[in-house]
Amino acid sequence: MQPHWDHRAPIYQQLADRLAARLLDGDIAEGDAMPSVRALSGQYLLNPLTVSRALAALGDAGLLENRRGLGLYVRPGARLHLRRTERERFLHDEWPQLRERLRRLDIAATDLTWEE
């Protein structure tokens, strides 16, 4: 199955976001090697340059480190760092909009559940 890409954001950023979500979920552990550019290109059906750019974005965010001759590895503390920055972004950017929409629709906290 081919992954779905949204036309509103650059594909490399969408891939970086997907890989970051895998880090948050623990699918890729701290200290582990990241899959190779070739492996990710095949898995997501993307140009290797796009994959390289996504990995560079994760490196620029302080989540990955390049070990010369070995590849890219998840930095120790990357998950906590990512959780903090994503939490801050959510509370600053997304939550106010979501709270306003809930208010408009007259949805109270008691109307919401955590279960699916």
Would you give an account of this structure?
With 116 residues, the chain is mostly helical. The protein is 54% helix and 7% strand. The protein contains four helices and two strands. A hairpin with a 3-residue loop joins strand 1 and strand 2. The protein is elongated and about 55 Å long. This is GntR family transcriptional regulator. Keywords: DNA-binding, Transcription, Transcription regulation. Residues 9-77 form the HTH gntR-type domain. Pfam families: GntR.
- What's the CATH topology name? Arc Repressor Mutant, subunit A
Distance between the termini: 25 Å
CATH class category: Mainly Alpha
- Give the helix proportion (percent range): 40-55%
| Backbone structural class | mainly alpha
Q: What is the multimeric organization of the chains shown? A: single chain
Continuous helix count: 4
Give the CATH H-level superfamily: Winged helix-like DNA-binding domain superfamily/Winged helix DNA-binding domain
Q: What is the molecular shape?
A: elongated
Order of helices and strands: HHHEEH
Strand order of the largest sheet: 1-2
